[in-house]
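Methods, example record. To illustrate the input and output format used throughout this study, we show the complete record for Phosphoenolpyruvate-protein phosphotransferase. The sequence lines were provided to the predictor; the line carrying structure tokens was produced by it.
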Amino acid sequence: MTFALHGIAVSKGIAIGKAVLISRAALEVSHYLVEAGKEEDEAQKLLDAFEQVRQELEQLRQGLPKDAPQEMAAFLDVHGMILADPALAEKPIKLIRTQRLNAAWALTTELNDLLEQFADIEDAYLKERANDIRQVAERVIKALNAQKKDSLNDDDFLPASDIGVESIIVAHDIAPHDMLRFKDHAFTGFVTDLGGKTSHTAIVARSMEIPAVVGVRHASEMIRHGDWLILDGEHGVVVVAPDEQLLAEYRKLQAQALKEARKLRQLKHSKTETTDRVEIELFANIELPEDAIQAVKLGAVGVGLFRSEFLFMDRKQALPDEEQQYQEYRRVVDLMHGLPVNIRTIDVGADKALGGGSDVSQTGASPLGLRAIRWSLTEPEIFLTQLRAILRASAHGQARIMIPMLAHAKEIDETFRLIEKAKQQLHQRGKAFNPNIQVGAMIEIPAAALMLPLFINRFDFLSIGTNDLIQYTLAIDRADHAVAHLYDPLHPAILNLLSSIIDQAKRADVPVAICGEMAGDPALTKLLLAFGLTDFSMHFSQLLLVKREILKANVGLLKTRAPRVLRAYEPEEQAKALEYLLS
Ligand code: PEP
Ligand code: MG
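The corresponding predicted structure is encoded as:
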């Protein structure tokens, strides 16, 4: 039966393919389809792992010291009983046989089903049994991983080409770093139950130029593995089990979009200026060094935001050392051939978890917690290492330091003190760097926006992070789909803040850019031009779309229409003012 689900469109385009369901726990394990004909071997692997865990538990039980608390034995007995229940292996084995899921994937899929059933149970004792089941399943997964030489491996994702049809990932949620792991795999779309438009997961999906719809509540429960899906990344719609007619219509739309993209590419070589000859600079936002290749190809005049934290988010690796970071930054600098590269210092916390295992102090999971520069200043050695690596890259081109989430004067003081210290350390080691490296601040906390002179006086350039500025001004967690409808870039408070920041920076002759998602939204290009913005930084997939708007715009005229928009606070009045501005 055909049905449609609705969510938040975060990455444009239409994808048509079969659903590949990634369970919550499955993101932590390898998941691939076993070769046809090898299903029984895989089922045996699962049974062997069960047997291995049974023996382990038995040994533990035998080895319990006489004075061990009674609960220990009871606990091991419960685990033994869970393991002995044939029902736990039954369904995974069926999944292996009928859908060719690898053993760990099949087991975690079943585990999730079981845990969800437990979630509805009120009884505290029974609820606790859910934990036992999870622990037993985790032991089995560990045993399965031990059967393989190396456990978690990115190659475990089966490329869609091997399946023979295009695949769309369906998951409850995907962390930004896990999203990046899909980069080299030929998936054609993403659907998640959770997420908001400017969550980092959505940003990464856009950067991969793969259609994505997030915040599709219950998608991972309602869509089954192998269902045919149409994913409309423009309107936030997911059609499940579409009929032939619908498929044909969407295929037509897909072809049209391809044609338009080809036409757009012709703009690549033209100058970026408005009809009244105001030159506009378009910069790229990147997550990985190699993204710089596309940025240059599409005509970016620099990297406005390199989200360096993506180098730090691999859970399996230790944090990169100075040399490794230097090599990565240098790669971007080299790829940009002398154009500026704003390396944003590590911004972990909130929806971006830090990798590197247990030897690193924790960041805050709340967007109001220990995030970005706040965390860096509590970890001066990690921060100094990063600063030295950026400084060393500055010997080869225009690497610049950009600091996220500053609000307090004392944070600024401390940051500059550490930059000086990093310079001294390099000097003592005889390493080359640019002593006059430019340092910029992100303006993304309302307090910074409201006290802009502090930043204008102390920094070489400013970059407005509208994703966070909106989040903190409107008190909307940008990753929470429950409040996603309140995340409004056009809120009069936001527009007035933006206009004021741009205006003050321009008057003081301090370069100012926007590097939040607003800069890459072609529907907002004329409005930002009207506020006087001349530097836009966005993901490269948006560059030409924004450029097309710029080529049609007359800044002189737009500026005369801005005050009416800024004065409006009633929605109707604002809508009219905007319509007039865009006419
Ligand atoms: C922003 O906040 O707008 C920004 C560009 O930084 P990030 O999205 O990485 O927080
Ligand atoms: Mg930010």
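Annotations derived from this record:
Confidence is low (pLDDT under 50) at residues 149-164.
The pocket of phosphoenolpyruvate (ligand 1) is lined by residues 305, 307, 347, 444, 465-468, 515-516 (CB under 6 Å).
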